[in-house]
Amino acid sequence: MTLDDLPALARGCAILGTGGGGHVETGVLKAAKAIAEFGEVPVVPLADVPPDGLILPLSGIGAPTVGHEMLMSGEEPVLIRDEVERLFGRPVAAVMSSEIGGSNGVSPVAWAARLGLPLVDADGMGRAFPEVQMVAMYVAGRPVNVVVLADVQGNLTTIRPVDGLWAERIARAVCVACGASALMADYVLTGEEARGSVIEGTVSAALAIGAAVLNSAEPLNALREALDATVLINGKVIDVERRTGGGFVRGSLIIEGTGDDRGRLLRVEIQNENLIALEDGRLRASVPDLITVVDAQTADAISTESLRYGQRVAVLSWPCDPIWRTERGLATAGPRVFGYDIDYTPVEELTHVRP
Amino acid sequence: MTLDDLPALARGCAILGTGGGGHVETGVLKAAKAIAEFGEVPVVPLADVPPDGLILPLSGIGAPTVGHEMLMSGEEPVLIRDEVERLFGRPVAAVMSSEIGGSNGVSPVAWAARLGLPLVDADGMGRAFPEVQMVAMYVAGRPVNVVVLADVQGNLTTIRPVDGLWAERIARAVCVACGASALMADYVLTGEEARGSVIEGTVSAALAIGAAVLNSAEPLNALREALDATVLINGKVIDVERRTGGGFVRGSLIIEGTGDDRGRLLRVEIQNENLIALEDGRLRASVPDLITVVDAQTADAISTESLRYGQRVAVLSWPCDPIWRTERGLATAGPRVFGYDIDYTPVEELTHVRP
């Protein structure tokens, strides 16, 4: 990963962020600074990590509106790496993004550069999710073993939770006490343990998605093709409701169709990420499938906090990684987990029929 | 420490709890059960702990109204001991009470019994205080190094804070996330490091105070003599204000004098513990000196939660350990720390003059 790759990576991660995952811009600044200071970051396929090599999954946690990358000292990854090496009794071989969507997909470049370690071409979500147990490692039944948090002050907290739900609960409390923002490692695992427990190829995918948008004269078409996405609607934002509380942003969005979509209305329900899309009371797309609102001209992702009345947008949806469609995947991050009383149906089976 | 010692220990710790420190009764039940199951607990002077022997200061943290001893599995000390031995690379030699006042003075008997370790005749406060950095080890300038918390579910959290204030902030957040109650070790130190950094002889003192009350036909006189205390007032509770929030109990108490004290009113300000006593707008006693409300007949301590209108009581005050009267001691737990805009004056210099 070089400085030249960062614009494509940032666009790709923002699109995979489905409206959440924090602002990519500050992640880009951190990554650029770290590459300039510590050098380029090799991106390696999981197959290249030795079976007993330790992988350090990292993510910033905190309310997305806090902009956690702004509140970091830069030394948090060192504190965490040292603690993990103490705990596991051997060196860390590579860094991994816990969450490719949003800033947590970009910032690991900075963290890996700071540590002089390669970045694994994989992550824990293949998208963004609001809670720390919503990762493929949890779905695959891996023990959370330890959660290590470092904050800008230099406080280091290590949690050995009884399960992933307690990990989320305690980690979030520590994060709030530390000023609503912290760097976190969880589900530390070896190369061998990672096979089948993480989502592979997602750093490359983010780069490819971003490059498709950047290098095309018709970015929206290029993006739709790169993702093999369904365009749920082309239109205009006519209503945005949003409130921040308890470290989460909740709200909804209404888009009125324009052009060929005139006369249609799409409603998107938001909890940090875009979770559900409805039209005429019928489901058009649902978490864990990805739903992203993009600028109609540039195809840049529009984050939950950046939504404004009058924006010309397209709403795209595309399939999540197969692990999220398993029974345990849906029990972890399906629509009912977020309080929606609906059964999950894959987006490719939810076709729109004109009334 | 045998089963027969527990009634005196409990009374002594309640009196040193100055109204706070949690209910001693559940601590007694735990200690009795643990002694019956695991055997008696040797109480050893600090001088008997080898210079390089590791001392494990333990306390329950949480709102006193939660009654944290009720919410423990009994295995928390084992989780914490194992973690501390991992972190420090050698065995723990003895348990110490972090806070002799209230239930945290009694429960260490249970924890030491469970671990098969002796209990050091010392503690970190010589009384009860509401915050974890209010310990002699902090006043003596010892680093907090690590804070280890275990909860009833089995979650284990280890904090390496940058200072004692961050330790308090993060530990309390973890405690709340774990259900408002946890067992905690902090300021782990060797026998050599403990000399001058802890308050010695306080387990013996609690036993002696309790025994004086239990074995006398005039318990109130016996208590006053054992403590060399000033009796601030003998009277009747005529007003109690109390509210619980943020893990703390705040309130105040008014006592109307009876007998020789007829015509006098004493006001006691409470923040978990009894902190300030005022009469006619003049200071009679102030934190860090100890102020305890006791039953006029039995001389049993009346905790903040047990105060009721109409109780016949005596209010006693006596000097704190000299470490609390140092500049750093007063900066840590003097009246201004609790929001009172007054200079500390030792209780023995605050004599009452009849109007």
Automatic annotation (TrEMBL), chains A, B:
<dbReference type="Pfam" id="PF06032">
    <property type="entry name" value="S-Me-THD_N"/>
</dbReference>
<dbReference type="InterPro" id="IPR027479">
    <property type="entry name" value="S-Me-THD_N_sf"/>
</dbReference>
<dbReference type="InterPro" id="IPR024071">
    <property type="entry name" value="S-Me-THD_C_sf"/>
</dbReference>
<feature type="domain" description="S-Me-THD N-terminal">
    <location>
        <begin position="4"/>
        <end position="159"/>
    </location>
</feature>
<dbReference type="InterPro" id="IPR010318">
    <property type="entry name" value="S-Me-THD_N"/>
</dbReference>
<feature type="domain" description="S-Me-THD-like C-terminal">
    <location>
        <begin position="164"/>
        <end position="347"/>
    </location>
</feature>
<dbReference type="InterPro" id="IPR048350">
    <property type="entry name" value="S-Me-THD-like_C"/>
</dbReference>
<protein>
    <submittedName>
        <fullName>DUF917 domain-containing protein</fullName>
    </submittedName>
</protein>
<dbReference type="Pfam" id="PF20906">
    <property type="entry name" value="S-Me-THD_C"/>
</dbReference>
